[in-house]
Amino acid sequence: MTQTLYKNFNLFDGNKASIQKDAWFIVDDESGKIVKLGFKDTPNSQEVVDLKGKYVMPGLINAHTHIMMNPQTNKLEYLSEAEVTFTVLKNLKELLKAGITYIRDCGCAFDVDIKLARLQAEGQLGGTEILPSGRPMSMTGGHGDFTEGLDGETTWGNLVDSTDEMRKAVRHEFKLGAKNIKVMATGGVMSATDQIDDTELSVDEIKTAVEEAHSKHMTVAAHAEGANGIHNAIVAGVDSVEHGSYVTDEDIDLMLKQGTYLTPTLIAAYTIPEYGEGKLPQYMLDKANSFIKDFYERVGVAAKAGVKLTFGTDAGTPFNGFKDATKEFELMTSVGATNEQALFASSKNSAKLLGIDKDYGTLEEGKVADFLVLDNDPVADVKAIQQEDKAVYKKGIKVF
Fold it and tell me: Strand order of the sheet with strand 129-131?
């Protein structure tokens, strides 16, 4: 059994809010797990990597991506399964280079995320690991009713218009291998047929999704931007609210009481007005410009109240590149989250939400050696994570 000693680095382990100096750990090369971790008194080993006083932190867990999407072409409809798969594989490489070592994908046409996750479980596909949601749950005409297939033979989401249809669709995704169920509780920026504060799924429909998912070791994530839809999702018992653009003070209190996570995806709102003028449909620009100020303010209120934040970027949406995911840390702190909250969002919080915290999310003995090596201290300044040439290790192997 060969092992590699990594020594001489400053550690943010994902558990403590401080940097721990003079750290070292030993990785079992076969399992890719940390077998010993300590400080000072560095042991001897045949294989040694000296990290020369740099900063080590856990690989980033992005709890909200859309790996099927191309953020430059912004093509959303009439995609073939081959085109989706090709795009996914390209985007996974960009994610890994950015330091994203694990993702929860939140809606993928043709269930491609489930199919590729199965290949990963079989050891046939490496790289950034996928926790899949498959096709999301949307009402007819809602934020998920995009036409897909060369001949328009299917839709991006499962179209559900009753509790019975929701139950069957969730069970179908379970059968295929989904680990999370994505429900579209409100309208959204990218759908032409609705407004972001439209309420699209009923409380009973979302409750049905939660009941089915939770009875089968799956979680539920709710796309929810308008206040009424956010409230419906929280009352229905979802595990995470995605975006949360108009979350009210009352629902912030309810999230704290229930332990509901918030995945803000601030960068998804930032990139549309920043880069989309003259390139995107006017309805997208109008929607984004109409709510971004309120969105940032409400997320700041939630963060200051202590709502559990997870790290997600909605990567794949317009001009929201997979390589740009680390901008989210800067945005989170700019609206009111502390550095500690932002860093815990991508480490222990996202790992707990995804149910992978036994092996991922923090750097400690017995866990997988997914880690980044940075030149500067991320606890002092989260922009340190934006370093383009940072080293990325996946299961103890340097991949960038």
Answer: 60-65, 100-105, 129-131
